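Field reference: "sequence" (input) and "structure" (output). Example, SPRY domain-containing protein:
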Amino acid sequence: MFKKLKGKLKGDEQPSQQSSFHPSNPYYTPAPPQHHTIDPTQKYEPPPGPPPGQGSSSSGYAPPPGPPPSYPQQPDPSWAPPPYHDWTVIPDTAMLPPPPSIGYESSPTANSTMEEGDRAYHWTRSNRLWPAQNLTPQTHAAIQNGQLALLKAPSYTGDLLPQQQAGHWKCRTYEKCHDSSILTNLPMYSVIWDSPLNTHRPKTIYFELKVASIGRGGSSLSEADAGIAVGFVAPPYPTFRLPGWQRGSLGIHGDDGRKYVNDTWGGIDFTTAFQPGETVGIGMTFSPPANPPSYEQSQQGRILDIDIFFTRNGKREGGWDGNDELDERSQGGTMGIRGECDLFPAIGVFGGVDFEVFFHPSQWLYKPF
């Protein structure tokens, strides 16, 4: 056993040609080992003379005379860095998209309580939106002629007086009238009859309201004790709430001038407060989509192109895209008012107000068609 081990060690001292290759690369041959010939008893002596290129006076090199030049007090202007950006210049923001609308936590004229808001929320949870209903040709023709009647909400205290011409109503509320939404007996927009997905043409719905008097003439919004709102709702709707406050509704409120789209809170700045003697109107135009929606957009509820507009004294004053993304507080988004449900005109009131309503196109100051 020891002879074999000794023979193996001796064999390792004489490596074969094959063992000279790298283990992982047989084509790589390492350099042969170097053999030192210096006698360990020999004393090392440095080579004579200075190192190459050092200490030779024959190189002709000499330092420049005098001290080194000082750094100039005024540097060359061409070396100066570029100036900083002038932060006082206001950039042109005309091409930037508009900032998102900022909602408020409350309205300066709010007279509703959190308990009423909670009750309305639970009411809508218990009453789902109605599916579109088919109307007879006679009923649809009556709607086009403005033959709409106003229905008194349970919380409404006042009078609803039909006038001689169809679609013309005079209304007045008592001083202590609570929040109420007055709805019509028939929808102004019928999905089955009017949807551009069925007709392949746009559909506009619109009505006007003339303000006669509001409250007792408070000098500021915070002193308002009465108000009027105009809008549209998808049924069923809690009529003890103003339009725009709950699911499936939108409204423009004349006490604070704000728009509300399923917004129980404080709304978004939109216009100025309604004044006695003014005629205001609200409309919606549903059109076939200019760009067919993608799968993702259809999942988010974009069905039609929707233009919502507001008029004052016969002139269009403003509007917004009905497909705009809403604040996260609007639970359910624009559900019900995207053209998938029948829509009814809605007039919101509180306190003592007097006004007239016009549903027939011949009575309007603004001509949307």
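The chain has six helices and 14 strands.
Residues 1-31, 84-88, 96-100, 218-222 have pLDDT under 50 and may be disordered.
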